[in-house]
Amino acid sequence: MHTATSASSEWAEANFLPRRRATPRVVVIAGIDRSEIVDAALADPALTDTIVPRLEPACSPPCDALLWRCETAAGDPLNRPGLLGRIWHRPPYAVTVRLVCYKPGNTAPEILDEATIGTRGPRDAFRSALDRIAMRFIRDAALDRARGPSAAAPAMPKGRGGWLDYQHARWHERLSTEWWSLGESTASIDDVLGGAGLGTVSWRNVAAGDRYLADPFPWPGTGRILCEEMPARGGIGRIVAVEPGPRPPQVILDDGPHHSYPCTLQEQDTVFCVPESTGRGETRIYRLRNDGVLEPVADPAPHLRLADPTLFRHDGRYWLACTDLDVGTHDNLCLLHAPSIEGPWAPHRLWPVKVDIRSARPAGMVFAHQDRLFRPAQDCAATYGAAITINDIRRLNEAEFEEVPVTVLRPDKAGPFPHGLHTLVHDGARFWVDGKRFVFDPGRTGHRFIEKLSRRFAGAGG
Question: Which helix (H) or strand (E) holds 9?
C-alpha cells in the first residue's frame, strides 16, 4: 500500500506553494474592506512574493494601475453599503461573486474568477466567507491559477429573509432531526439527463427509527448496496451492505471513526472502495473482497481532510473528486489524479477546480453515457443535500477542468422524503438515491444540551 512518508511535505510544497515571479506587479485591490482575514492574506509572503497588492477598498474603474475588484454578478462591489444585509440568509440562499480585472485606464471588465457561495448561517460567518473567497480569488489569480467565469447561471438573493429567516432556521434545527433512507428508480438515463426526473421511487424504511441508511453505492457482482448506517440523533456512522428482504445489514467498516459515502469502482474482477473518513489524512482506497474484507491499497491525500471522495477513470488516469473541508464544507470541488491506483497521487493544478454551493460537492459515481462524462453534485444552498445537480464534464486533464450543469433532480414534495436528495448512482439496471425528511423531535434540544454538559464536565475533570 502507498502510505504517507516524508514525501508528503514535498508533495504539498511542489503543488500548493506559489512560484516566485521575477518582478512582482502592482495590483490595486478593491471591492473589499479591511478585516483580519484580508489583512493577513495581503501580508502573506506567498502573495507578496508574487504581486504587490495595494488595497484601495473604494476604487472603481478606470484606475491608474491594474485593478482587481471583488464584485457580485450584477457588478456591485462586495463592500457596497447595505449589500450584506440584502443578500444574507435570503432565497435562493446563494450568491455569485467574482474577481473582475480592469486594465489601467480601462472600464472594460474581464472576469478572472467566479464562485457561488451559500448565504445561510450566522451573519458574521457569512461576512468572513466573503472575505475568504475574495482573498482566494486574489491569491489564485496572482499564481495564474484563476478559474475564469463559470458556465452556471449566476445567483442573486431576492425577497424576504435576513434575521427572521435565520432565527427560523435555528429553531428548525433545534426541534427537528433528519431521517434518510434509500430509494430505487427504473427511470432511464436518457430520461433523467433530459429533465424528466426519476419518476416513481421505491423507498426503504419510510418510517423513522433509531438508525437510518444513506449514501448508496452498488457492490458489483453481489446484487447488494453499500451504504452508510447512522444513528438518527447523530454519532458515528459505519459502512454496511444491504440486500433485498428483511435480512440485517452486513457490517463492512466499523473501526471507530465516522465513515460514510462508500464509493465503488469496478475494474474487471476487482472492486475498489473509497469510504469517506474526514479526519486529516484518513482518506483511503481499499480493495473490496467478495467476503466483505477491505484491503488497503493507497492513501491518496495524507495531509488533507476530504469529504465524499469519488473514484473514477478518465483518459488513462485515475481521478478522485472530493470536497476539501479546509477550503469549505459544501461548496468546492477538488481533484486528485494518478497514473495507477497505488499512486503517486497529485492534486489538480487548480485547487479547487470549482466553487459553487449548488453543484460542486460530489453526490455519487461519475458515469459515462453516449461518449459523455456526467458527474452528480450536491445542491446545498437551501439545506444540506437539498437537491442533485448533474454536470456534463466538458474538459478534464491535469491542468484544466470545465463542466456544465445539465439538469437538477429535486425531491418529490408529495413523497415520503420531500426535503432532500443527496446521492445518485446507477448500478447498470436502476438508479439508487437517498432522500431526506425532517422529523419533529423536540427532545433533540435536551439531548444536545446533555451532550454539551457532558463534554464540559469531561473537560473540567481532565
Answer: helix 7-16
Would you report the helix, strand and coil content of the chain in percent, each value rounded to 5? 20, 40, 45
Q: How many CB atoms lie within 10 A of CB 332?
A: 26
Cα–Cα dist 365/425, whole Å? 6
Task: Name the maximum alpha-carbon separation found in the chain.
Answer: 73
**CA angle, 258 as apex, 252 and 263 as ends, to 5°?**
55
- Are 306 and 321 in contact by the 8 Å Cβ rule? The answer is no
How does pLDDT run across 142-192, given as a tens digit for each residue? Answer: 999 999 999 999 999 988 889 999 999 999 999 999 999 999 999 999 999
Distance, in Å, from the CA atom of 263 to the CA atom of 216, rounded to the nearest integer, reads 8
d(CA 331, CA 224): 31
Relative orientation angle of helices 163-175 and 443-461, to the nearest 10 degrees:
80
In this structure, the dihedral spanned by the alpha carbons of residues 51, 52, 57 and 58, taken in order and rounded to 10 degrees, is: -100
What is the edge-to-edge ordering of all strands in the sheet holding 25-30? 51-55, 25-30, 66-72, 94-102, 110-118
Asked if residue 273 lies in contact with residue 253, where contact means CB atoms within 8 angstroms, the answer is no
User: What is d(CA 318, CA 345) in angstroms, rounded to the nearest whole number?
Assistant: 9
Q: pLDDT of 253-303, one tens digit each?
A: 999 999 999 999 999 999 999 999 999 999 999 999 999 999 999 999 999
Q: How far apart are the first and last CA of the chain?
A: 38
Q: How far apart are CA 132 and CA 312, in angstroms?
A: 30
Residue 55 pLDDT exceeds 50: yes
- DSSP letter assigned to residue 196: -
Helix H segments across 112-162? 123-142
Position 40, amino acid: A
Contact 108, 372 (CB under 8 A): no
* Domains of the chain with bracketed CATH: 24-169 (3.40.50), 176-439 (2.115.10.20)
247 secondary structure, DSSP code: P
| C-alpha to C-alpha distance for 344 and 139, rounded to whole angstroms | 27
